[in-house]
Amino acid sequence: MKHSRLASTILAMGLGLPGLALAAPFECPSRGGDIMFGQEANVNSLDQMTSSTISTRNIAMNIYETLMTRDENNRPILELAESMEESGDGLTYTFKLRPGITFHNGKPMTSADVAASFNRYNRIGLQRSTLDNVAGWDTPDPMTFVIRMKQPQPTFIEALSSFSVPIVVIPSEHENDDRQQLRTVGTGPFRLMEFVPGSHARLGRFDAYRPNTSFEQRTGFGGYRVACVDTVTFRIVTEASARVAGLETGALQAVEDVPTRSLDSLRRNTAITILPLQNWWIQIALPNTANPPVNNLNFRRAVQAALGMEDIMDAATDGNFRLNVGFQFPNQPSYTDAGKETYNINDQARARALLRESGYRNEPIVILTNRDYPPMYNAALVMQQQMRAIGINANLRVVDWPTSVQMSQRVNSDEWHFFHSGWGTQPALGALATMQFLVSPNAQYRPRDEVDDPEVLAAWNAMNNERTAEARQAAFATMQRMILERVYALPFGSLTKVQAVRSNVQGFVPFRIPRFSNVWVQR
Amino acid sequence: MSDATDAEGIAFKREHPGRAALRRLFRHKLFVTGLFLFGIVAIIAAAAPWITDVDPQRLSMRNKFLPPSETWIFGTDNFGRSLWSRVVWGAQLSMIIGASVVALNAVFGTLIGAAAGYFRRLDNALMRVNDALMAFPAILLAIAVTAVLGPSTLNVILALSVVYIPRTARIVRSSVIVLREMEYVQAAVAAGAGHWRILRHHILPNAMAPMIVQLSFLFAYAVLSEATLSFLGVGAVPPTPTWGNIMAEGRDSMREAPWIITIPGVMLMITVMGLNLLGDGLRDVLDPRLRIQQ
Amino acid sequence: MIGVAFRRLLSAIPVLFIVSLITFGLMRLIPGDPAAAIAGSGATPAEIERLRRDLNLDQPVLMQLVDYYQGLAQGNLGRSLLLGTGVFAATMERLPVTIGLSLYALVFTLLIGLASGIIAALRQNTWADQAAMMFAMIGISVPNFFLGLLMIILFAVHLGWLPSGGYVPFSQDPMGWLQSLAMPAFSLALLQAGLLARITRSSMLEVLRQDYIRTAKAKGLSQRKVVLKHALSNALIPIVTVVGIIVSLLMSGAVVTEALFSIPGMGQLLTQAVLSRDYPMVQGGLLLVTTFLVMVNIAVDVLYAVLDPRVRYE
């Protein structure tokens, strides 16, 4: 039996290394208490299989668990399984489930539940393309779950452990629940007590929770997890000033998305701890290369050369950002600065020269953006000003988010030239999840008739099919350089999202979603 | 309110109606106060190009969030734009939007209301559609219409007209129904005058008074609703400087930079109050049956 | 009276039919895609396309219209695309919140509006009258979202007296409910209170001038008795009408107030449904809300007929 390097890492972690087993696992320094979390965006449903919105994940990821997830550094780890073996031909993955796991309704979890979860996900899961290359799954015994592949896929584990729209494990009797209608019963450290869409969701400690003893500490979405507090209430507070005020008065114990303007006064308040979450998303604009004059490389290069990223990011984030080349972040192993010469050129003379070469004749250029996500709107506003400064007749088209998405997806659209977006979850998941946005059918630079740039496509295929991780990483660097040099995307930089807690709330480490296991209230 | 009370619209038709009304208007304290308040805003709006020196859309990231001072009369916003410029140009947009909605209402409200009130056959069909449009919560209907048309200043005007024309039409219709039965109208009908002539010469001039009163209040509603739509993010497209847009963008920093929402808010209040006082005065003088006694 | 109610109910049917047609038409004309709204910002175009097929959004409009009316005929309003729950169930969950808020605001409205209107009428042309009318004028001129923002800044941010947002169900904690809705209800009530104060004042003045009041006074009835028994009860007729109007205004105002204070009511549900193109929710929800408002108006008309026997409807 042959293991890929990735799989052996997981195995080692899953089985627990002898040295680490001696260290004591996490214990709550204090138990009990209630936490009220001020959440920015509304939640419509807690069906984690059919929604990719962050607001759903905020809550649902404290309730549900998966076979595999990601650790603090975004590496795949086992969660509901104690081991995973990949066959030598890469065609089967065999999972041994952790014993003694029960659902919130008291039912013990078996492989039948895992199979039912995969069935539901395959029927209506938002990212069921993850399972496109899967031939089927079997349950040889109650504690064993086997996934059979159609062809070997070196990147399958990376996709399976994705937390974007994870394949959460639900009781088999919920297999046929309708879209957005999933009854909220999982295996996580918290169970749902009350959910009022538009208002709040209250979670309580699940007393029969069995922590994953392969770990000593919480890591990423998994690890050794314990619910220390009695309840956590996610309250929707859309008004930023109201969230800050709630934190100051103690009505809220934790909040997300603190406006930069409020940080100074909060920093002076010793009762409050500020927790910046760097690299929340990549602020980005995508050109519509099907639409002249944007189909002209020199025109795109002129725009690229005109952009000053400090001003754009400053406006987008109110000053809380980091300049960042490309599509990954420096703390990630996959990060590369390939193509960095194209970033933040901010040279008007060069931009004007390129513009002349392109033969641009003052055609109106439409920057498509929305007001639902203020950073996108703000970035577009500054981009418009910088384009006008070199003599491009740039205009904003502000619509709401669903309209802008629909417009940006029309084939060969002549309605817009640059589309503003923010890539959050995908860059965090890794290079593969991110670069899918740059190949058909998802190619957001909108190549004419959806015919991909063949060299970009070749690099993408290499990213997927190379057998070694090193070769796949090299292919990613090539693809990033190509995308930047051919100006198929204009990534501006990375946005910091600030979370904050009352200082007596301890153990809270900012992550892509707020995690409330291993968090306690100091008395 | 019920139609039966619209009886005396013609009461003051007897002598020098225009001049007498004007004289009484300008002796009406509330009307004069309203005219003064509204006049200030209207003048600021009209003078926008001359009293502002900075483009309301020019960004200046170095100057963001400056409080009101000698250089920046109203301070700056989160993009370092001059709030004075934005509020003044916002006044102009508010006036344009309010006046356009009023004009569209005057034309279409009169047409529909007169048609429904005068031609009994049309009445039922027109009024059912009217009732249906009026049955919606006003803001929700406006949100839905702007969502259909797409956000822009023109579309806000259209959406607000769709919301308010039924209300204007209803008022015109009730006047027309009463006037239609008046003796002198019946006499004109007996004398063989055409419908158009009767409407134009005998009915509409006498139905004007309640409509003018309604239109002055409507101006206030239109200004207010436009601000509300912009504030909710479905009005005029940012960065267009409307008061609602300015306030919406100032929301996140209202703890630290409260001037961004208070200044346009107070301007909005002054405008609406001026128009309400103006409307009260007009009603007292032109439409005495609705008079709130002094 | 029963005749009035019956005739008004009958005339409501075509109105509601037109309402349903208008909502259906409006929603199909809106550009944008419910699938994109539901999938959220992280979804790829391919996922959105698949979701669109899953939701049957690729059917011809006429088929959708037929389906819609077939559903209506069976009392089925359909299922919200965004929430996944039935439209009727979602509405029944949210409408009580808005009605509760509106009633709360109505209490403020009646207290403030009637009191200042009555005082102004009884003390006509004194400083009290002028102060009350000045207050009413400010009330009808302050945009309610502006008032709401000012109250958040003052009471929640600076003084920390009241919660700045969030909703506590009455059934769970009545005191919490009163507290959490105090600011929204007040900001919603001020405009209506201004309207009511003005109407109350003028109808009271009119009644006070009538002969029978003078007679009552001449007969030696105390001022308080005259006001309460005769003047106010007669002034109630126009006031009831205004209260009917106020209920629909409160519904409209709730849209903004709920958004500002994060209250999970009907206004927020429908605004969000429009913005995310949740067709069934907008169609069904608006139909239910409008039906509710039409019923309130019918009730007002009937009440009007009871209070004033002279009223006859054509």
N-to-C span of chain C: 13 Å
Beta strands of chain C, count: 0
Q: What's the pLDDT, averaged over the residues of chain C?
A: 83
Using the coordinates above, name the CATH class of the largest domain in chain A. Answer: Alpha Beta
> With helices defined by DSSP (H or I, 4 residues minimum), what is the helix count of chain C?
13
What is the 3D shape of chain C? globular
Which fold name corresponds to the CATH topology of the largest domain in chain A? D-Maltodextrin-Binding Protein, domain 2
Corresponding CATH architecture of the largest domain in chain A? 3-Layer(aba) Sandwich
**Major sheet attributes of chain C:** none
CATH-wise, what's the superfamily of the largest domain in chain A?
Periplasmic binding protein-like II
How would you portray this structure in words?
The complex is a heterotrimer of chains A (523), B (294) and C (314). Chain A contains 16 helices and 21 strands. Chain B has 294 residues and is mostly helical. The N terminus and C terminus of chain B are likely disordered. In chain C, helix 1 packs antiparallel against helix 13. Chain C is mostly helical and 314 residues long. Chain C is globular and about 80 Å long. Chain C is 77% helix and 0% strand. Chain C contains 13 helices and no strands. The chains are: A alpha+beta (523), B mainly alpha (294), C mainly alpha (314). Chains in contact: A-B, A-C, B-C.
Show the helix and strand layout.
The complex is a heterotrimer of chains A (523), B (294) and C (314).
Chain A: H1 5-15, H2 18-21, E1 34-39, H3 54-60, E2 68-70, E3 76-78, E4 81-86, E5 92-97, H4 111-124, E6 134-141, E7 144-149, H5 156-160, E8 190-196, E9 200-205, E10 218-219, E11 222-223, E12 231-236, H6 240-249, E13 254-255, H7 263-267, E14 272-287, H8 297-306, H9 309-317, E15 321-322, H10 348-358, E16 365-370, H11 374-389, E17 394-399, H12 401-409, E18 418-423, H13 425-429, H14 431-435, H15 454-465, H16 469-485, E19 490-502, E20 505-506, E21 520-521
Parallel strand pairs in A: 1-12, 1-13, 16-17, 16-18
Antiparallel strand pairs in A: 2-3, 4-5, 5-7, 6-7, 8-9, 9-12, 10-11, 13-19, 14-18, 14-19, 15-19, 20-21
Helix pairs in contact in A: 8-10, 9-11, 15-16
Chain B: H1 17-27, H2 29-46, H3 48-51, H4 83-118, H5 120-135, H6 138-149, H7 153-180, H8 183-190, H9 195-232, H10 243-250, H11 259-286
Chain C: H1 2-29, H2 34-39, H3 45-54, H4 61-73, H5 87-122, H6 127-141, H7 144-158, H8 174-180, H9 182-208, H10 211-218, H11 223-261, H12 266-275, H13 279-307
